[in-house]
Design brief:
About 0% of the residues lie in helices and about 50% in strands. It is mainly β.
C-alpha cells in the first residue's frame, strides 16, 4: 500500500482547479481457457480497462454535448485526463488518457451549500502482455448511445439539458411530525439528455439534483 497526499496530487481535466476528490482503477481481467489433462490453461485472454471518477465544484469541467452515434465513429463525449499522484517514498503510476464519459450527476442538497458535480470515465486499452497471453486489442470504434437522466429541484441550472419532447414528470414529497416538522415536495423529470455539465455553484435558498448515464459500446472490427 502507498500513501497519497491530496495537496500534492495534481489532477488536470481541462484545468487544475476545483477538484474535491478523484478515484482511478486499472483493471486487468484474465479469461483462462482450461484444458483437459493439465492444471495449466491452454491460453489466457486478457482485457484491460481504466476507470476514473472525480467530484468537482459545480461548473469546473464545463458542458459536454451528447450526440448519439449515427455512423461508425468514436464518441465525442470525451475528456483528456491527467492524474499525477503525490505519494510518500514510492512512485505511484498515474493516468494520462483520453477517456469516455459514462455518467454525470449534480447535487446541491442544502439551501446554503454549494453545488457539486460527479463525473465517471472509462477507456479500453490493449494489455500489451507477451508469452501465452491473448491481448484483447483496443476497440476499432467506441460508439455513444442515447443518454437518459433525471432532474429535480429549483436550482436554475441543474447541469443537464433534456430533449423537451422526451420529458415526463412525476412527483415526490415527505414531511414528519414535530417541531418544526418541515418537509419538501419536488417535481421529478425524466428524459433524454442532450447536454451535461455547467451546473450552478452558488444559489442561496435553492436545492436540486440531477443525473445522467452515458452508454458507450466498444466495437471491434477485424483487419
Amino acid at each position: 500500500m502507498s500513501i497519497i497526499i491530496g495537496a500534492l496530487t495534481e489532477v488536470n481535466i481541462g484545468g487544475t482547479d476545483g477538484f474535491q476528490s478523484v478515484n482511478w482503477n486499472t483493471n486487468v481481467q484474465p479469461n483462462r481457457l482450461w484444458q483437459l489433462g493439465d492444471w495449466y490453461p491452454y491460453k489466457t485472454q486478457v482485457t484491460k480497462t481504466i476507470t476514473v471518477s472525480v467530484t468537482t465544484y459545480a461548473g469546473v469541467l464545463g458542458t459536454v454535448a451528447l450526440v448519439p452515434a449515427s455512423s461508425c465513429a468514436d464518441s465525442s463525449a470525451v475528456k483528456d485526463i491527467s492524474i499525477s499522484p503525490g505519494a510518500c517514498d514510492v512512485v505511484v503510476e498515474g493516468i494520462d488518457e483520453t477517456m469516455y464519459i459514462t455518467s454525470y450527476s449534480y447535487s446541491k442538497g442544502d439551501p446554503i451549500a454549494f453545488g457539486t458535480e460527479s463525473w465517471s470515465f472509462q477507456v479500453w486499452k490493449n494489455p500489451g502482455l507477451s508469452g501465452d497471453f491473448i491481448n484483447v486489442p483496443e476497440p476499432t470504434y467506441v460508439l455513444q448511445g442515447i443518454a437518459e437522466g433525471t432532474k429535480s429541484g429549483d436550482v436554475s441550472n441543474l447541469g443537464v439539458v433534456m430533449d423537451v419532447d422526451s420529458e415526463v414528470e412525476g412527483s415526490q414529497g415527505s414531511v414528519s411530525a414535530g417541531f418544526p416538522g418541515i418537509g419538501n415536495a419536488d417535481i421529478n423529470v425524466n428524459g433524454i439528455v442532450t447536454q451535461i455539465g455547467g451546473g450552478t455553484l452558488e444559489e442561496g435558498g435553492k436545492v436540486g439534483q440531477s443525473s445522467a448515464n452515458v452508454p458507450h459500446q466498444p466495437l471491434y472490427l477485424g483487419t
